[in-house]
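Ligand: 26W. Inputs:
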Amino acid sequence: SWKAALRGVTTESPEISKSIVNHVQTSLARAPYNIDDFGAYQAAALSVRDNLIVNWNSTQLEYSRKSPKRAYYLSLEFLMGRTLSNALLNLGVLDNYSSSLSSLGFSLEDILVQERDAALGNGGLGRLAACYLDSSATQELPVWGYGLRYKYGIFQQLIKADDGTQLEAPDPWLDHQNPWELPRLDVTYEVRFYGNAQRWDEGTGRATWSGGQEVLAVAYDVMIPGYGTKNTNNLRLWESKPKRGFDLQSFNAGNYERSVESSNSAAAITSVLYPNDHTSFGKELRLKQQYFWTAASLADMLRRFKHLEKPISQFAEYNAIQLNDTHPTLAIVELMRILVDEEEVPWDGAWTIVTNTFFFTNHTVLPEALEKWSVPLLEHLLPRHLQIIFDIVSHPAIIRESSLFLQSVEKKFPGDREKLSRLSLIEEGFPKQVRMANLAVVGSRRVNGVAELHSDLVQKNLFPDFVEFYGKSKFGNVTNGITPRRWLDQCNPSLSALITETLKIERNVWLKDLYKLEGLLAHVNDSEFQARWAAVKHQNKERLALFVERQLGIKIDASALFDVQIKRLHEYKRQTLNILGVIHRYLLIKSLKPEERKKVVKKVVFFAGKAAPACTLFKMSTLLPLTIRLIVNVARVINADPDTNQYLSLFFLPDYSVSLAEILIPASDISQHISTAGTEASGTSNMKFCLNGGLLVGTVDGANIEIAEEVGEDNVFFFGHLTPDVEDLRYQHTYHPIPVEEKSPALAHVLNTVSSGIFGGDGVYEPLLNTVRQGDFYILTDDFDSYIRALEMVDEAYSDRTEWIKKSIRTSAKMGKFSSDRAIQDYAQEYWNIESVKL
Ligand code: 26W
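Predicted complex:
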């Protein structure tokens, strides 16, 4: 069915077939007659790569020739997923390769799934970076990404069969040769750690940093093709390796083990992606990663800038650097170091360059996610950088500004010492800590959040004093976006084909101008179109059902309502609310007479998502694996209950990934985005579901709000308390607690049923249940009844199938705003001030 949707034309090209066979024989050194699907994938990938390399070269040549202002996207995470299908689509050769492969006896569908995901990210922040690269190349903007080439990406999640606990296994994604990267073994930089920083005579602000450990950064380039353009940008990933393979002296002294030791510690820097999102642990190796990456990237940018032979004072006119959250904030300090110590730029001039170069995006307001590095650790690892941080704090200009500011504060709020301490880059305490977010704000030209509500909270709750200090214009909003190439055309080819046919415009037009989807509104009442729209959804649900049957061996009824929540597990995302709601539904159906049950809307609930590996130091984090256990064990019971299992079933799909999302999202009727109001900065999967005609149950949070603005509130199922209420409710929980039994008898019943042990566990769930009963920081008890009502509204709406289909069409039609093309244009114009470069 999937292949049938591939627009079916025979476009076999003898050249492509020849190139694939040629790669089998030469690059793979194998005989073409006994090649398997994986070999065919490798050969096809190498053949496609040849095209990418040609385009990549012409693009980079053109950039050098025209020397436009460039933007650099610094992100510790790029969650790319698979590349082959994306490269085929963007190059416009999907049909040709499909035909050629089938003439060689392979099916493209089978070949595509051979590829392992490149999973160098945790979740939203990393996938956003990947979408932005696709859009930058598509808009022909001179944007490069810089990141780390982790040997191991996000861990693989296994769910233990007996008790439903999460196990983590390494992700050896580079075990097979990676055809999508070009090793640049000649592009290397030395990066220093530890050592001594010696200040020069007073006045210059300069210093010399020497000694310590030096490691080598080696570049690997990943080609990023634009859609429907030759422009092919670059994602440069750094690998760490020892500067000298062997310390000859100790080698000669016969100490072989010690001589390879240094190589171990250098390689460790880029060995693994930290799997914790939204929590900062202050680990030295993580700080090493951050500095290694920012130092190599800046050295590379500076080398490129020097080829232009422009005065260094013009650096910010040729370069914009986007900081993806605070993770690359050291780049601000490193550029100061280079300018002051190496380029001999006077301190003030250097600060002007720096503050015109950087832009900072915040992605979360959760306090536990705000990075702080201890002063002693920084002093040990990066002594010169700590000096610079202190110089920034105490620089005369800043003191002058801040004392002016303080004078005005003093007038308005006499004696407000706290204000000064909130503005400080250094947090008092034992040890003192550097607040990376404050440093990022001070060192950047502009600061933005990722959705309207979030950007508002960034200004009002996170940095109110900085807004007062710098004025409002330094702060802005860029609502996130998603690439419609991967998240509609690739993952849902049938829907894409139907849209193209209905709009009567070329696919490559609406895929580049997603507002064109509004043209679908003219067809909302066309019953034949409705039927085809519904048939596509059904076909995608059958594809998912087949996938689950193969994975878990359980048959699924594709005519049921598919309800999906897939995202990292986190307290604030409230997967717990969802599973408690499922239990509520189960108990309700169970309590009905067999006759009455027949009226129930059939539903299949899907969960997927990884929990940060449990860390014994942090009691909280052990609750997330507990949520998975609860889901898995509830699933076991209700899927086996013959009274109810034709009306309600439940699945936890292990090892959530970009590729799994590509199967789940097109198949969803309804998806859940149910964070406590004010906690989810934006969310991006909400956009993906809606683009594919899925409706949304959600709180009034993040981008849900803007989605509702676009599609109309009658097409989303909102529930729960609003952001301004949350603080009051938490205050109430602390000082005037009301027992769950009183607040929500329905929820109390659910909690007691879990405690009673019908889902097993022998009391293991008590700590999880108790966070709901007491404290309840994420206000599940306050939102539960309203949540259940919203789900009842979903049932009701789904029962009128024609109305539902109309809602689905209207939703998809109004997703134009959420294309990452729009978001990238925003950054290009309002932040980076860069223009496209035509080849
Ligand atoms: C230091 C540990 C750490 C690691 C990652 C802290 C914070 C993060 C990220 C900023 C977390 C993240 O991915 N945030 C998500 O970013 C998405 C893209 O903007 C948003 O859509 C999500 O709402 C936000 O949670």
